[in-house]
Amino acid sequence: MEIELLERQSSELRKDIVEVCYHSKAGHVGGSLSAIDILNVLYFNELRIDPNNPKMENRDRFILSKGHIAEALYVTLAKRGFFAYSELDNFSGYNTKYIGHPNNKVAGVEMNTGALGHGLAIGVGLAIAAKKMGQDYRTYVLMGDGELAEGSIWESAMAAGHYKLDNLCAIVDRNHLQISGCTETVMTLEDLKGKWQMFGFEVIEIDGNNYEEIINAFTQAKAIKNKPSLILANTVKGKGVSFMENQAGWHGKAPNDEEFKIAMADLEKAGEALCQK
């Protein structure tokens, strides 16, 4: 899909996220808005998948390790055609498979996630399995930066480097905020690029809300041989909604009536500007 179309679609996906969180009175809207551009590129430009055959044997695998932004994944899957958007009317409600963390009963979801720190380990296992079975599918794992305080992430990184998993692409949504505040105040992460390099990863640092940079990063990652890749995506929490941007308070919070109106107006205005490009 062309960059201009992806950019326009991002505005629609952001509105979908805000709408789902508003109507359900649940969700993690801030982190969803920071990561949606990455998901948009993955599902519409990068992943080898088939919505009509979600379990296609040689499909690329995507693991959402920061599982609390399930609404971002669900609206992307709906847009891609895995299920009807109307199915999200009961997001996070009673007796629904569209729960607040990824659920592999949902078409297109590979693995249940939510307890932070486990997604990369799953991805490493999938990447090793592909090599052992002689399959050429690639595995992608999206992590949050606050999640990187989990020791299991670094055990998995060590294994990925050791086994030279060049069919594994990890992504960090580096929005610098987590539920408790600034990541560097809660648990220092920097030098983050250097850490991943020491574990054997080729690191590609980008603006994670810039479509040209995201697309180029995935292209570069596919060309890397004999080592795993890590896309360090610098993003803005709450991206696209004026009063949510760079605010830790929008980690796990749904907008009220007035906030919903303002958010949708912000996104509508941004969408109109993109259409005029």
Features:
about 280 residues; alpha/beta; Rossmann fold; 5-stranded parallel sheet; two-stranded antiparallel sheet; about 10% strand; globular
Task: Describe the protein.
The protein has helices spanning 3-24, 29-46, 70-80, 119-133, 151-162, 183-186, 192-198, 211-223, 257-275; strands at 61-64, 139-144, 168-174, 177-178, 181-182, 202-207, 229-234. The chain has 277 residues and is of the alpha/beta class. Strand 4 and strand 5 form a beta hairpin.
Q: What pattern of helices and strands is seen along the backbone?
A: HHEHHEHEEEHHEHEH
Helix/strand-derived category reads alpha/beta
Q: Numbering strands along the chain, what is their spatial order in the largest sheet?
A: 1-2-3-7-6
Query: What general outline do the C-alpha atoms trace?
Result: globular
CATH architecture: 3-Layer(aba) Sandwich
Number of helices, where a helix is a run of at least 4 consecutive DSSP H or I residues: 9
What's the main sheet like? 5 strands, parallel
* Arithmetic mean pLDDT: 95
In helices, the fraction of residues equals 40-55%
CATH fold assignment = Rossmann fold
